[in-house]
Specification:
- The complex is a heterodimer of chains A (791) and B (207).
- By secondary structure, chain A is an alpha+beta fold.
- Among the domains of chain A are: 198 residues, Up-down Bundle (Multidrug efflux transporter AcrB transmembrane fold); 116 residues, no CATH class; 150 residues, Multidrug efflux transporter AcrB transmembrane fold.
- Helix content of chain A is 64%, strand content 8%.
- Chain A is built from 28 helices and 14 strands.
- In chain A, the strands form five sheets. In chain A, strands 3-6-2-7 form a four-stranded antiparallel beta sheet, sandwiched between helices. In chain A, strands 11-12-10-13 form a four-stranded antiparallel beta sheet, sandwiched between helices. In chain A, strands 1-8 form a two-stranded parallel sheet.
- Chain B is α+β, with helices and mostly antiparallel strands and 207 residues long.
- Chain B has an eleven-stranded antiparallel beta sheet.
- The relative contact order of chain B is 0.17.
- The chains are: A alpha+beta (791), B alpha+beta (207).
- Chain A: Its main location: membrane.
- Chain A: Keywords: Cell membrane, Membrane, Transmembrane, Transmembrane helix.
- Chain A: It holds the Pfam family MMPL.
- Chain A: It is a multi-pass membrane protein.
């Protein structure tokens, strides 16, 4: 290391020494303008920040997954303690539904629309439009003379029973129960696996629960509106659910609130602890009013970085401000370095500034490189974080090297707290032996650490929500664990045609309970035309006349008039109107239509649901891959792909950061021994973090990877500061600076280890272990190795 | 002149007949009395004859059977001719049988919309539950003693197939003697209850 010359920062000190008011005024003005600019920031509180925008299908898949039938709904499962009494269950469901409606939470539904005369009319119209070749063969068998006699006898006898009056119309319109063919197709439209209808209400197969769904317009990412919504729902549940019943409410809003509440609780705990700890650290180590300015540097940096973001991108991801804010709050090592150097005094402040500037610049450059690599990320939130953090680091650098030296006066006699830690020199051999032992144990532990790349590992799902999920799955089957197959066309007709082709491929291997599709009930118009033509031709081949004769003859034996079945015979001769979406809605099937037909901008998607089983998804991906316009999305596959994508991203810039930091250190320190010394805290921090996590059985997740980058950035600074100052004569200010900034980092980021939210906790644990071991390595191992090096 | 005389006679006849069939709102006393009289009924057993006048048949369909009722929610409706069949209702549960097919099956009333409607009607008449009846129908009194009521459904859904009901009570007002269901298309069903026994012990295994 060369002798510090009066570099740019030394000269700047001299320049502003006579113009301090201008400097302070300009600084205050900059902070004030930044605060003003940052007030214009608009937060973007959605997942887009964490979705790759590299042209991969992740973002599209994510948007498509949001179109799943129950993803957008709030679901209430009402359970009775007396499962036999379905009338009471239905009454309680109606009461709660009314309460929810009065609370204006959205469109509340307890069951499908009542299937009345319109539905039975629809059955008659549907048959000619739906019947394929195989269906007509079944109808031929059902209309054999023997079957006609049998059916008419059944119908005749049913008419004597009290419920016979309701069957009269059906007997006239469909004496041979042809419409059973259409009813069979409804089995492919069961969105809730373990559900049956009781008094037109969704009731579980075991009769214990009723299902209420709510369509709400409140976005799941809006935590404030979600809270209002859930408060209203909870109030309705509280006042409307009678004794002997219990309600389980599940929706995306619950997860949003659980996460928001956990983050809020965590921040309250962590910030309180951090502020108290940082204040205590400053009180113990800095012991001067001018220490206030050190404290102000990170605060000002936050304002400037936020202001710069407001000018660059008016919409900022919440995660950028949240995580970036925490990071920049810890950027006080430059200020701490200059503080201790200035407090020690004994030299021209310009010279002190110039001397400190070099290691500080090297450290800042290493940190800038760490964050700069994030600009290559495929995640937009990460790129914003890079810009935000780099702006903040540049501002911290300027404040520390240009403004702070004017604000910190030398301590009387140049005395530093604890005598500048001069006496804290443990025996070299003991330090090195302990270090080697710890490294060896941790290196072994690092080989046992388990990696968990799942996004679920960093997502907070409270116990009560897990219990609610399990309860709903047990009662109703897996409502949300369905893979989605979208058949997309430029219009409904082409989408329906594609949907039929999808159905034709899936139906042979998937039973109706597993496959949910509109295709059996709503084919394309072209397919319907074909079916109608087949129907007309089938009956015109003398079959209609023969059946008419059979009905007249067999009917007469039971006393039926000749015109008794005229409505039915008319359907064999006339070509009915085609089926369409409006017809299905009018028949009372609007819930299904709305769930499965999804109009978009310039296109229409028709949705098919299949179980989200990995082996099935793999097979279907292959089989449906040949159908253009068909898109298969599965939550499990998306989660794995996203986890993989993020891991790939983080691992790439972890490696790039490592290489760049190494190159920077090599360029600055040149000699291999000094390079190795600088890297001691980094190596120690990373190995110990991995080792201790492995030994404690903690899993390494994607947030641990992010925190590792932070550890590299921080620990390399400590190494640079220590080696630079040791090379320049070994004064004690660098030790104090490393200790104080390290402790404040531990107090700030390490306190996150106490958080409940898995992502925050992961960062906290990593930093606590990495920085917590990197600091003693910098303070004790570097001097020990340096002495050996010199010796 | 002859025509004028005929019209006068017709008018006189109509005026004379008016007091006999004037439709009036039910007096609370009448319904109260009917409900009170029916309140003392614990069990009912009765033969019935049912005539269905349906346009899809050349002749009325006649059937015979027997009805049993035990308070509060047990009922047996049994056809003996022309086809032996029937059902038993017990709370929310039910069982139906058909002798020719040999089929017997249990069911839950709440899961069968038509059966639910039928059971509501049958229980309402057997119990003389006027609170329910007035909620579901507009009631007019055609005759005070023995009581004859005309009921028109209030709900559009029921009105879609049922035009009105005529309910005739026994002289002592304790039970229903006849029911006529008139459909919108002109078809109707008449049920006459005969040999009705009130509060007679019923065999335990009948429900």
């Amino acid at each position: 290391m060369g002798e510090p010359s009066l570099n740019l920062f030394g000269r700047l000190y001299r320049y502003f020494a006579g113009r301090r008011r201008v400097l302070y005024g300009a600084t205050l003005m900059l902070v004030a303008l930044s605060l003003f600019a940052s007030s214009r920031l608009r937060l973007q509180d959605d997942i887009v920040a964490m979705l790759p925008d590299d042209g991969s299908s992740a973002a599209t898949d994510f948007r498509l997954l949001q179109l799943a039938p129950f993803t957008r709904k709030l679901v209430v499962s009402l359970k009775t303690q007396a499962p036999g009494d379905s009338a009471a269950l239905v009454a309680a469901a109606d009461s709660l539904a009314q309460g929810l409606r009065e609370a204006k939470v959205g469109k509340v539904s307890t069951g499908p629309a009542a299937l009345g005369a319109e539905f039975f009319g629809f059955l008659g119209t549907a048959l000619p439009n739906l019947c394929g070749e195989a269906d007509l063969k079944r109808l031929e068998a059902a209309s054999a003379p023997g079957k006609v006699r049998e059916r008419l006898r059944e119908g005749y006898e049913q008419l004597f029973a009290p419920e016979g009056w309701a069957l009269k119309g059906k007997l006239q319109a469909d004496p041979l129960s042809f419409s059973d063919l259409v009813l069979e197709r409804l089995r492919f439209l069961n969105l809730v696996p373990n559900m049956r209808l009781v008094q037109n209400h969704f009731v579980s197969a075991d009769g214990s629960s009723a299902l209420i769904t709510v369509d709400t317009t409140v976005p799941m990412t809006d935590s404030a509106a979600s809270r209002q919504l859930m408060d209203r729902v909870d109030a309705a549940v509280k006042t409307r659910v009678p004794a002997g019943f219990s309600a389980t409410v599940l929706s995306g809003h619950r997860y949003t609130l659980a996460n928001a509440d956990a983050v809020k609780r965590d921040l309250y705990l962590v910030l309180t602890l951090s502020i108290v700890a940082v204040f205590a650290i400053y009180l113990v180590f800095l012991r001067s009013m001018s220490a206030l300015f050190v404290f102000l540097v990170p605060s000002s940096v936050l304002a400037i970085a936020s202001g710069a973001m407001a000018l660059w991108a008016p919409k900022v991801f919440a995660v950028t401000l949240g995580f970036g804010g925490v990071l920049l709050g810890m950027v006080d090592e430059y200020a701490t370095m200059i503080y201790f150097a200035c407090r020690k005094g004994g030299k021209d402040p310009a010279l002190i500034t110039a001397e400190v500037a070099r290691p500080v610049l090297s450290g800042a450059l290493a940190t800038l490189l760490s964050f700069g690599v994030m600009l290559l990320s495929v995640l937009p939130g990460q790129r914003q974080l890079a810009v935000y953090s780099m702006t903040g680091i540049a501002a911290a650098l300027l404040f520390s090297l240009v403004v702070l030296p004017h604000l910190v006066r030398p301590a009387p006699g140049g005395s530093l707290p604890f005598g500048g830690m001069k006496t804290l020199h443990p025996p070299r051999r003991m330090v090195l032996a302990l270090w080697c032992a710890v490294l060896a144990v941790c290196a072994f532990g690092a080989t046992t650490v388990r990696f968990n790349g799942s996004l679920q590992a960093v997502n907070l799902v409270p116990v009560e929500l897990k219990r609610a999920e399990a309860e709903l799955n047990r009662t109703w089957g897996d409502l949300q664990g369905k893979a989605l197959i979208f058949a997309e066309g430029k219009d409904l007709e082409s989408a329906l045609e594609l949907n039929r082709r999808v159905f034709d491929r899936l139906a042979p291997t998937l039973p109706p309970g597993e496959l949910v599709s509109l295709a059996p009930l709503l084919p394309s118009q072209a397919q319907q035309r074909e079916n109608r033509a087949r129907w007309v031709s089938f009956w015109q081949e003398g079959r209609a006349a023969r059946l008419e004769g059979d009905l007249a003859r067999e009917g007469a034996a039971f006393g039926f008039t000749g015109a008794a079945f005229a409505p039915f015979l008319a359907t064999l001769k006339a070509s009915p109107a085609p089926l369409n979406v409006d017809g299905l809605r009018a028949a009372g099937l609007s819930e299904l239509v709305d769930a499965l037909v999804l109009p978009g901008n310039g296109s229409v998607r028709v949705l098919t649901l299949v179980p989200d089983r990995p082996e099935l998804i793999q097979r279907l991906s292959r089989e449906l891959g040949t159908l253009p316009g068909v898109h298969l999305v599965s939550e499990s596959r998306f989660g794995a792909a996203m986890g993989g994508s993020i891991i790939h991203d983080f691992t790439r810039y972890l490696a790039t950061t490592g290489v760049l930091v190494f190159l920077l250190v090599a360029a600055v320190f040149r000699a291999p021994s000094r390079i190795a010394l600088v890297l001691v805290p980094v190596v120690t921090g990373v190995v110990c973090m991995l080792g201790i996590m492995g030994l404690l059985g903690l899993q390494f997740n994607i947030f641990n990877i992010a925190a590792t980058i932070l550890i590299i950035g921080l620990c390399v600074d400590y190494g640079i500061f220590m080696v630079s100052r040791l090379e320049d004569g070994g004064d004690e200010t660098s030790s104090l600076a490393v200790l104080v900034s390290g402790l404040t980092t531990l107090a700030g980021l390490g306190a996150l280890a106490l958080a409940r939210h898995p992502s925050m906790q992961s960062i906290g644990v990593s930093v606590l272990l990495g920085v917590g071991t990197g600091i003693p390595a910098a303070l004790f191992v570097i001097p020990a190795l340096h002495r050996k090096d010199k010796a | 002149m002859k025509r004028l005389l005929f019209l006068c006679c017709l008018l006189c006849l109509l005026l004379c007949a008016l007091p006999l069939y004037a439709e009036t709102q039910p007096s609370p006393q009448l319904l109260d009395t009917l409900e009170k009289n029916a309140g003392s009924v614990r069990t009912l057993s009765s033969d019935f004859v049912q005539e269905k006048h349906l346009s899809m048949f050349k002749n009325p369909m006649t059937s015979k059977g027997r009805l049993y009722f035990s308070k509060p929610d047990q009922l047996r409706w049994e056809l003996t001719a022309p086809v032996a069949s029937g059902f038993v209702l017990k709370g929310d549960r039910g069982r139906r049988w058909h002798e020719r097919t040999g089929r017997t099956e249990s069911f839950q009333i709440s899961q069968e919309p038509i059966m639910k409607l039928v059971s509501e009607q049958l229980f309402a008449w057997a119990r003389s539950d006027f609170a329910w009846i007035k909620k579901e129908y507009r009631v007019t009194v055609l005759q005070e003693s023995p009581a004859l009521l005309r009921l028109e459904p209030r709900s559009a859904a029921t009105a879609g197939f049922l035009h009105h009901l005529l309910i005739g009570f026994s002289a002592d007002g304790r039970y229903v003697k006849s029911v006529e269901l008139h459909e919108k298309d002109g078809d109707f069903t008449r049920i006459r209850f005969l040999n009705t026994a009130v509060n007679k012990a019923l065999p335990a295994d009948i429900f």
